[in-house]
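Take just one protein record:
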Amino acid sequence: MASRARQLVEILSQSISDIEDFLKTQDAPDLSIEQDVPLSFHANPKFASTKDAALLACKELSTLLGGSFAAITNQTTSEFANTQAICRFKIPSSFPPDRDHATYDELAANSGLPEPEVRRLVRSTLPSYIFLEKETGIVTRTAASKLLAYNPLMVQWVEMTATEIMPATLKIADAMEKWPQSGEPHQTGYNLANNTEDSAFTHMAKFPGRPEQFAQAMSLFSMGPGYSPKWLLENYPWDSLETGTVVDVGGSKGEYGIAIARKYPQIKVVIQDLPDVIEKAQSSAPADLGDRVEFMAHDFLTDQPIKDADVYLMRWILHDWSDAYSIRILRALIPALRKGARIVLHEYIVPEPGKTLTLQDRTLRIFDTAVRALTNGKEREANDWKALFAEADSRFQILSIEKPPVSSLGIIVAQWEG
């Protein structure tokens, strides 16, 4: 018996053949992104049913290929609102022990919601394959609902996206009207959505649990294979530093700086971040690297205090900031730079249209929208990175801009020629 994926391919293939035959009988052009099928065709029962079969096959096949993570993250706003609700009321984890199927009455008893509410919420998620209802009244967990049941970080991501990012993104146009061309971190969709004059992270910090939820949710992405430190370790010539110092600017707990120090024993690493971050990071620092890993409180918007280091590393820093602030961050390095010092950025490199798979491009464009909504940040194309360094100072020379094949982040290397 053919696999479900192959069955879907066959359904899709037959449906497209039937649609193309129908269009020919109507002397209509082929399906095209640039021209719609005439609206009257959609009223034709044969065309409508065949089209629906093709779309449903595409949807299910996309879910099979994308997996549970994509099934949750690639939802419309209304779909996502229902997913937030099933998470809030713990419906994915309300199944009887050791069972992946349950009646609506069982889910209602375990979740505390009335049965009609449970039924309405669960059935709203069926088109997204969060649950299945193979038999009327019997709910079956899918890979997606199992992920929501057993992975608390995924649930945190759903809640954070629904409460922090989505309201902010829906206010982007309003922010653009109120603050034309602003790059200020406190003049964003987030500010309008939350009625605050504080920047997003300053505002979140006033509410217990919100910063932690945001950090935990974002850690879900950094746990993916494309965000592993190995891609930075293997695709920059750290071994060319016979001895030397690497400054991990905005390095948080030092996941990347520590990985560099551990793999390259000739390198000393200084991990910099704000005082409260550094205080927590020091408490969990590996004792065996104490002589080569140093923690330092530093605000990267102010002049860099470590002079004459070989490399200044910034991982996933500048995408949170507009061009004006990113230029300010780069210029703050200049007083410390010696000729030949390198700045290594580990950031997204948004591909130019038509230069990559549409799904990869779509994801990065979504991230660009999110950081714009939160902080007026920006995900940048290669030419944007070049322009940023050129505007910061003409003495920065771009050496390379590349993305390792499996890595989600690219590596931008610039050298100081001053």
